[in-house]
Design goal:
Elements: E1 6-8, E2 24-31, H1 34-39, E3 43-51, H2 58-62, E4 70-79, H3 85-88, E5 96-100, H4 107-115, E6 124-128, E7 134-140, H5 141-149, E8 153-166, H6 170-181, H7 186-203, E9 212-216, H8 219-226, E10 231-238, E11 241-246, H9 257-283, E12 287-293, E13 296-302, H10 306-312, E14 340-342, E15 349-356, E16 359-364, E17 367-372, H11 377-383, H12 386-395, E18 399-409, E19 412-423, E20 431-432, E21 439-440
Antiparallel strand pairs: 1-15, 2-13, 2-14, 3-8, 4-7, 4-8, 5-6, 9-11, 10-11, 12-13, 15-16, 16-17, 18-19, 20-21
Helix pairs in contact: 6-7, 7-9
Length: 448
């Protein structure tokens, strides 16, 4: 999510440094192996039991320790008090799926779409952090404790699932983390990271999405499959090659989706706790969140010397990727899960431009770092520059690029060239204000 579209740094390493203005830094932080950290926490294991609201109290839930043997998943209603809206605007708690319609968009957003000759989608459902009150919201008890401590108000408990929780993945995660710490090649690092993330992926697998396809080469076999009550559709690949898809007639739901759910919830706990209880506690309104992804946070921070601040907060950071001659270099927390790294490894950041979720550019002293979803890396490196992002932001004109790709249709492989809109100038996850840089979260009291 891009919460503020543009920021320019002002510090002694900037070419256009203005000493009469306050020092302003841009820092891009990433959590070490966020999913690994969550998987090393107590996770649901056994003894699942439904509880009614009368069988458990809020006080009992709030007094449950994070590392206790009993855990809870709750369905609740929560109120987001208006007095929190300004403070939480850039990083609202308790994100949820929202349906964005043309009525949700303000005139600024509609004008941008009109300039692009694009009609707004009639209905678009997406995950949106917002400041609305929460109805029938499902969350882990550790998230509830954190949200309440940060000011949200619990209005109703609908139902509760109680379970026994254990750190049953911790040894596995720690082993892979240690192996990754001593890895000497990029392949080894990625391999041990995958061993962790693949486990999470299986906990969230939706087996209902699986399909049953038979490849047949004879008329007799094809007629038999088509005559089946489970027949769904067929595709002819060639004269003697047909794929027949049948619906699943039986399904064993054996994936621990409650574990995957808790892992996602605990990810939010670490990120929200770091943002509100560490960064915002130290800087207050002198820190502005520019964008966030699942495991990363990018800030604009007004302070005298950011390096001095990071030195005082080194217990939260991994500085092992900094140059060895950098004053902050330390391997004390190297590859420790749950610690935060500077993605630019100490390089002074000069400018940030964000256009929409997973679409931003960071200009540093030594180069550019761009992210754009759906565009090949080679195309991004050759055709997209930081200046293109700036032009798109200022002119509100989308940028189209050409890329070659290999496609496949009915198992016939071909190459093709396509034109693709790389940098759209529109983001409907936020309520964009007239300056086209500042935005509000949906549900903010100023929207009305």
């Amino acid at each position: 999510m891009i919460s503020h579209l543009h920021s320019e740094a002002n510090h002694p390493q900037c070419p256009n440094y203005d000493a009469s203005e306050a020092n302003k830094y841009i820092t891009y932080l990433d959590a070490n192996n966020l999913y690994g950290w969550a998987m090393s926490q107590p996770l649901p294991a056994s003894d699942f039991e439904w509880l009614s609201p009368e069988e458990i109290s809020l006080q009992q839930i709030c007094q449950t320790p994070d590392d206790g043997t009993t855990g809870y998943i709750l369905e609740v209603d929560m109120e987001y008090p208006p007095e929190l809206h300004d403070l939480h605007n850039n990083y609202p708690l308790a994100p949820e799926r929202m349906t964005i319609t043309p009525n949700t968009l303000n005139q600024t957003a509609l004008n941008i779409l009109n300039e692009m000759n694009v009609q707004p989608a009639l209905k678009s459902e997406k995950l949106v952090p917002n400041l609305c009150n929460k109805q029938n919201y499902v969350l882990h008890y550790r998230n509830l404790k954190l949200y309440l401590s940060l000011g949200l108000k619990l209005t109703k408990i609908h139902r509760v699932m109680k379970f026994t929780q254990l750190c049953w993945l911790k040894d596995y995660i720690n082993f892979n983390t240690e192996q990754r710490k001593h890895a000497k090649t990029v392949f080894e690092k990625d391999f041990f990271k995958l061993l962790n993330n693949a486990v999470y992926g299986k906990t969230m697998e939706n087996l209902r999405n699986r399909v049953k396809v038979g490849i047949v080469q004879t008329k007799k076999r094809a007629e038999k499959l088509v005559a089946s009550p489970a027949f769904h559709e067929f595709t002819i690949f060639d004269e003697n090659l047909v794929a027949v898809q049948r619906k699943l007639t039986k399904l064993c739901l054996n994936r621990p989706i409650q574990v995957g759910f808790v892992i996602l919830e605990l990810n939010k706990v670490l990120m929200y706790d770091f943002h509100y209880n560490i960064i915002m506690t130290k800087y207050g309104d002198k820190a502005r969140l520019l964008f966030t992804d699942t495991d990363s946070l990018c800030y604009e921070i007004t302070t005298g010397d950011l390096n001095q601040d990071l030195e005082r907060m080194k217990q939260y950071f991994d500085f092992s990727d900094y140059p060895r001659d950098h004053p902050l270099y330390s391997d004390e927390n190297k590859e420790k899960i749950g610690y935060f790294k500077d993605e630019l490894n100490g390089q002074p950041c000069l400018e940030f431009i964000g256009l929409r979720s997973k679409m931003y550019s960071i200009l540093s002293e030594r180069g550019e770092k761009q992210t754009v979803k759906g565009i090949y890396k080679s195309v991004r490196q050759q055709q997209l520059k930081h200046a293109n992002y700036r032009e798109c932001l200022l002119s509100r004109k989308p940028l189209t690029v050409s890329q070659n790709r290999i496609g496949s249709e009915k198992h016939h492989i071909f190459s093709m060239q396509e034109s693709k809109r790389a940098l759209p100038a529109f983001d409907d996850k936020r309520f964009l204000l007239e300056d086209s840089v500042t935005s509000l979260s949906y549900g903010h009291y100023k929207i009305g």
